[in-house]
Amino acid sequence: MFDEMLASADGVRAPYAEIDRWIQKSGLDKLQLRRAEAEMLFRKIGITFAVYGEGGDPERLIPFDLIPRVFSGREWRQLSRGIEQRARALNAFLWDVYHRGEIVKAGIIPADLVYRNEAFLPEMIGIDPPGKIYSHIVGIDIVRTGEDDFMVLEDNCRTPSGVSYVLENREIMMRMFPRLFSGRRVQPVDQYPAQLRSTLEEVAPPACKDDPTVVVMTPGALNSAYYEHSFLADQMGVELVEAQDMFVEDGLVWMRTTQGPRRVDVIYRRIDDDFIDPLAFRPDSVLGVPGIFDAYRSGGVTICSAPGAGVADDKAIYIYVPEMIRFYLGEKPILKNVQTYKCADPSDCKYVLEHLDELVVKEVHGSGGYGMLIGPRSTKAEQEAYAKRVIADPADFIAQPTLDLSACPTLTDDGIAPRHVDLRPFCLVGQKVRLTPGGLTRVALREGSLVVNSSQGGGVKDTWVLADDE
Amino acid sequence: MLSRTAENLFWMARYIERADATARMISMGARMAMMPARAGGDDEWRSVASATGCGDLLASEDEIDEGAILRSLILDRENPSSILSAIGRARANGRAVRTALTTQMWEALNDTWLKIRDLDEASVERDVPGHLDWIRERCALFQGAAEATHLRNDGYDFYRLGIFVERADLTLRLLDVKYYVLLPETEVVGGGRDHLQWTSLLHATSSQRAYHHVYHGDYSPWRIADFLILNRLSPRSVAFCYDRIAEHLDRLGRGYGERHECHKTASGYVATLENQDMGEIFYTGLHEFLNDSIARNNRLAGEIADAYLF
User: Are A258 and B308 an interchain contact pair (Cβ–Cβ within 8 Å)?
Assistant: First the structure.
């Protein structure tokens, strides 16, 4: 296991020197006290996510670990190049599959995988979104296994969430430990909302001739990520709208205001494709706005991310992202993929079934860490049951080697101990590509656990990128 | 601003005002229940219950259980008029428009909710006055945060309209359930009970000291009604509320460059209150006046919603 703080031959790795001094100086008792204080702050500000149907308080806190995760400036430069490269390639892929499909014709990606994909929206064929951009906020989940070994675990091209934690975690750390930041070496993250707003304004639709009006669209206060929706709207200084606040007339989208209807140009929607427009997609959707897809198609409004962007972040498509980078950008991929076996492929499937005890097997369309088998942590019976599911529908599964994820020092009930982490940076794609240094570090709080999802006992950490190298 | 935002601000303000007023009325009820000359038995709790919109709870019962009333009015999740429900709804409205609240307003509201939600009946019963004081303090903190931090924009106008529409309604409803004690025929010279009854109205609006300052301790039903209806200095009087309502509607009208039906209703009622005196109201019937005013106030709330599309 690569311990991001302690992996150095001569003790603490350089980027963690400051953190190490701080931990020594504060002492465990004090840190434990401050942990409770941090939790109170999160409650008070109302930084919660909602879990329904499990009983108890539906408004939950994501556990926050006080000890920051740190990247050196050098590490981040390398990562950021790889992230931006990937975000550009994914958008090029989306434009291609909704137009001529060159990558399919070139035989690089099987046609079925694209055109029969559930996330592929035939309605999007031939539509030209402003700037040819489909995924304006790309969340790329990255894991680390060694000093220079970073790999992409998955891409999120629809509406990746978690960026509010990036900003709030930093806010809370600065409020609680101002001295940690007094060296002024930690790169700020609070430019994100302004950059998001610029990104959204840059993709205003053709029908918009003035300053574009941007809104954030939420399914409502009961949605699990509602806090983030309101946070982003607030930070950008734009309206937070629900479907009921908008209507379509003359091919344009309007919102109902106290001064009558007002034009909406760019919608950063935080609802799924299916629900956007009951006329175009799910007729039973009450979260959508009738006619909004037509307005989009005719250039009256821009929907971010574009409907159908999800085809690029599918787990079956993921395997081909390095090929996309070569095909569209003519570049060498900077970030590696995790080796992935496609059960749709008979020889891969055979290998997977023979090595269930050492692989992580996932459903192609699954998310949130549910429905997967972690081989080394499973019983024989679980493996056998899972094998039956794979055999029944091989195309629905992929498998990856169990990664030995890097770990960061984390405050637990029994003191400071290493816990596995991953990283989700948020890359913004408008006329320019923008990336806020750092991202969301998720940490698996249970000892030995590799699952970082908040729905399954994961927590978060403030993530630092240092301004320069020592 | 979004119409839904305006609506949420308006209702958030109403619910906070309601929680505050309910706490005041319960204090009054508890105080009256301690008085020795309690002719008429449990009338006080009946008035409190009907003024807070919980009259149904008691309609069928002969014997009133004070503990049950307190439980129902303070912490009952099932009772939509309880203080807990009012604060929960204020918070739900506030949460739906978090971007329209300042951080201080939100934190005051959210903190109150998190605490009241976790209160248990036993500890409230051990110290009812202490908890009612706490609720009033929390409402004052929230309203103070709004005064100190909210932009004076249209959102502020909708917020303030909510406060004063609700306050006018509550004052009118309180008077309506107690109007009979103010009627001249119940005025018995030196009657201890009536004196208590009249002053209970002042207690319910926390204005007994203010009343002293204005009328120098001269208690009479006529003056008490005047203080709660027509006196422009009394911050809980109907006239005061309507001055504020008209003021904020005027600001909206100027800002948006458009006036609506609600502007006419509000300024018409301000003029009515200006030209009335208490003698005239008693002469034509206090009860009728109150009923008519409650109806007007409800109509105004509907007209505001229509004008601003919520």
Answer: yes
Establish how many alpha carbons lie within 13 A of residue A33's alpha carbon, considering only the half-sphere containing its beta carbon. 6
Among B4, B151, B309, the strongest candidate for a mutation testing the A interface, having the largest count of A CBs within 10 A, is B4
Contact A221 B114 (CB under 8 A): no
**CA separation (Å) from A31 to A35, A167, A176?**
6, 21, 11
A227-246, pLDDT tens digit by residue? 899 999 989 999 999 999 99
The distance of A318 to chain B (nearest Cα, Å) reads: 37
Contact B106 A234 (CB under 8 A): no
Distance from CA of B100 to the nearest CA of A (A): 8
Q: How far apart are CA A273 and CA A108, in angstroms?
A: 27
pTM value is: 0.84
CB of A304 closer than 8 Å to CB of A136: yes
Residue B294 Cα, gap to closest chain A Cα (Å): 26
Mean pLDDT computed over B165-187? 81
Q: Where are the alpha helices (DSSP H) in B76-219?
A: 83-96, 103-117, 121-126, 128-149, 154-182, 192-204, 208-215
Shortest Cα–Cα distance, B255 to chain A (Å): 10
- CA–CA gap between residue A6 and residue A21 (Å, rounded): 13
User: What is the spatial distance between Cα A325 and Cα A88, in angstroms, rounded to a whole number?
Assistant: 8
Those residues of chain B whose CB sits closer than 8 Å to some CB in chain A are: 1-6, 92, 95-99, 103, 106-107, 110-111, 114, 154, 158, 252, 256, 258, 308-310
Comparing CB atoms, the residue among B5, B95, B308 nearest residue A221 is: B95
Asked whether the beta carbons of B238 and B228 are under 8 A apart, the reply is yes
**Crossing angle for the helix pair B128-149 and B83-96, to the nearest 10 degrees:** 20
Q: Which residues of chain A have a CB within 8 Å of the CB of B1?
A: 239, 257-258
- Cβ-count burial of A392 within 10 angstroms (0-12 exposed, 13-18 middle, 19+ buried)? exposed
A260 and B95 in contact by Cβ < 8 A?
Answer: no
Taking any CB pair shorter than 8 Å as contact, residues of chain A touching chain B are 43-46, 220-221, 226, 230-231, 233-234, 239-242, 244-245, 255-260
Condensed to tens digits (0 to 9), the pLDDT of residues A146-173 reads 999 999 999 999 999 999 999 999 999 9
Q: What distance in Å separates the CA atoms of residue A299 and residue A206, rounded to the nearest whole number? A: 6
Distance CA B264, CA B274 (A): 15
What pLDDT score does A91 carry?
98
More confident residue, B278 or A44: B278
Alpha carbon separation from A326 to A133, A149, A364 (Å, rounded): 19, 20, 24
In 3-state terms, what secondary structure has residue B63? coil
Closest chain B residue to the Cα of A216, Cα to Cα: B99
Q: Supply the DSSP string of A160-187, one letter for each residue.
A: ---HHHHHHHHHHHHHH-GGGGTT--BP
Question: Looking only at Cα atoms, what is the longest distance across chain A?
Answer: 69
For residues A419 and A407, what is the distance between their CA atoms, to the nearest angstrom?
A: 5
CB atoms B4 and A242 under 8 Å = yes
Average pLDDT over residues A435-450: 91
Q: What is the DSSP letter of A11?
A: B
- Chain B interface disruption, residue of A258, A262, A264, A268, most B CBs within 10 A: A258
Q: How far is CA B244 from the centre of its chain?
A: 15
Residue closest to A168 by CA, chosen among A287, A84, A43, A275: A43
In the three-class reduction of DSSP (H, G, I as helix; E, B as strand; rest coil), residue A255 is classed as: strand
Bridge partners of A373?
Answer: A361
pLDDT at A425 over 70: yes
Of the pLDDT bands very low, low, confident and very high (cuts 50, 70, 90), residue A284 is confident
